[in-house]
Amino acid sequence: MSASQIVIDTVNVTVEKIRQQVEARSYQAANELRTSALYILRGQRSGRSYRVPGTRRTYQASAPGEPPAVRTGIFRLSWTPRVTTDGNSVRASIESDVTVGRYNLGELLENGTSRMAPRPYKERIKEHALPKIKAIYAQPYV
Length: 142
Hints:
The protein has helices at about 5-40, 75, 105-110, 120-140; strands at about 50, 60, 80-85, 90-95, 100, 105. The protein is of the alpha+beta class.
């Protein structure tokens, strides 16, 4: 085996190790996004008070511009971390599959509807998670 082939093999092994580390760190990043979603989508809001259907209890909704209020907790707990790889590209994300009719609830809340002002939350989740995600990827490789 020639010296150049040994170098090529060593480089290929190192590149594969780094690719595996990036993928593993992407799972950590996706978990940080989920943790941030749980943090951002909690707490009291300052909107109107409503009666919980079928009960005598009330809850306080979110005001326009605030992240969505938690009424049942289904939306808040529905976030699933995902990592997708496509060739040399790795993407960390979180997804919620909660629907209202045939529409994704997260999209309705983020963008609003003709009857409801937007309740933006996505950018706040990203901003909250970004420092921790940068620290995950900044650790030394190999």
